[in-house]
Specification:
The complex is a heterodimer. Chain A is built from three helices and ten strands. Chain A is of the alpha+beta class. A five-stranded mixed β-sheet of chain A has the order 1-3-8-9-10, with no helix packed on it. Chain A has a five-stranded mixed β-sheet with strand order 2-5-4-6-7, covered by helices on one side. In chain B, strands 1, 2, 3, 4, 5, 6, 7 and 8 form an eight-stranded antiparallel β-sheet that branches. Classes of the chains: A alpha+beta, B alpha+beta.
């Protein structure tokens, strides 16, 4: 099954899986052996949902907590309250079992040091709280999280095993 | 968002011209601080989406330092200075009078040096624009971050309220001795902030 996508180069180890980029305020769902990656999470929250049985997983890059504060919503994946149900629906459509879903979260950092009214709103923290709230409402368990603090993060979901890799500047890769 | 459609090429030109004057002043200030010649690219005013803003700077995971100041007064918005990791160290060396290559990590001293540069440059930028247009502007205390470009930019955009799908970005590159110091300047006016500027310039926006 791993031969489906052959390595590009035989001399060097190249992951046989495709690495799918998930941009800011985007949502993508895929199945094994692909990897989903979102780079540079600051105050944004990255959320992965994974069904270990069917090995279907999704990654959502949440920018803002609450869409109801905005009059016009063009990109639902930007918001925790709209993006998460949308990802669940997409996983379901692709044959994943909603009852199996395991959630992992990363991001929601406070990137800047210094006091400033605009940063006092702490969107990172609000993104984290809202994401947890929506997940609880959907009955999805949070298996692991790597949130808060002041470091930017890159998040990678390996749909082959459900592991999530967290990359930060100046520290080794962490697996959650 | 109707404002974005109204702002035509003419207004973009005016924005670029205004920024050019402000940034010319800022570049002079930087040259005086460093006692070295600083070159400045022509500023561009454009509506961009997030991915385009990131792409302008290089990789999302590239390490940069960023000084972020909020503008208050007649043109509320956000000003950001970004320096690539290597430029950050070179900048500290030049400011402190060290030999180039001395600094290879960031400490508190370095952070305050870079923040101060952001402060001085933004000050001279708004003074030049204020002097020409009579508009009143002020800045907040600089905020500082040193991390992945994507994380810093997205956090700045969100904190500054620039969460629309398209963001008005006035941006330029300044450099000293080719690549020894390479910095990006961003001005992100708040939605609605520009009407007053255009009116002052004698070109009111007709909606």
């Amino acid at each position: 099954m791993q031969d489906a996508t052959a390595p590009k180069c035989e001399l060097k180890y190249v992951s046989p899986a495709a690495e799918i980029q998930v941009g800011i305020a985007e949502l993508k769902v895929t199945g094994q052996p692909d990897r989903l990656i979102t780079a540079g999470l600051g105050s944004c929250v990255g959320l992965t949902l994974y069904d270990p049985l069917t090995k279907i997983g999704g990654l959502l890059h949440i920018m803002l907590p609450d869409s109801t504060l905005f009059s016009k919503v063009t990109k639902p994946a930007k918001f925790a309250d709209l993006g998460i149900p949308l990802m669940v629906a997409e996983i379901k459509r692709r044959g994943g079992w909603v009852g199996n879903l395991q959630a992992k979260m990363a991001g929601g950092a406070q990137m800047f040091s210094g006091a400033n009214d605009k940063f006092m709103l702490n969107i990172g923290e609000r993104n984290i709280v809202m994401t947890r709230l929506i997940l609880r409402g959907l009955g999805i368990k949070v298996l692991a999280e790597e949130v808060g603090g002041s470091k930017g993060r890159t998040m990678i979901l390996d749909t082959a095993n459900g592991r999530v890799l967290i990359r930060t500047v100046g520290t080794p890769i962490k697996v959650i | 968002m109707a404002e974005s459609e109204v702002i035509s090429g003419l207004y973009m030109d005016a924005l670029q011209e205004i920024s050019n004057i402000g940034l010319g002043n800022a570049a002079t200030a930087l040259a005086e601080l460093l006692n070295k010649k600083v070159e400045l690219a022509v500023p561009k005013a454009r509506f961009l989406d997030f991915e385009q803003v990131f792409a302008m700077m290089g990789g999302v995971e590239e390490v940069v330092s960023c000084v972020n100041l909020s503008l208050g007064g007649d043109i509320p918005g956000t000003v950001m200075f970004l320096f690539m990791e290597h430029s950050t160290y070179n900048l500290i060396d030049m400011l402190m009078g060290y030999k180039l290559g001395t600094t290879s990590a960031l400490d508190d001293m370095g952070i305050s040096a870079i923040s101060e540069i952001g402060n001085v440059l933004t000050g001279s930028f708004i003074n030049a624009i204020g002097g020409m247009t009579g508009l009143k502007m002020n800045t907040t205390v600089p905020m500082f971050a040193f991390d992945m470009l994507g994380a810093i930019l997205s956090a700045s955009l969100v904190a500054g309220g620039h969460w629309g799908d398209k963001i008005l970005v006035i941006e330029t590159l300044f450099f000293q001795n080719y690549d020894q110091i390479k910095g990006h300047f961003f001005l992100l006016p708040e939605t609605g902030a520009l009407n007053r500027l255009f009116k002052t310039l004698g070109m009111p926006v007709e909606c």
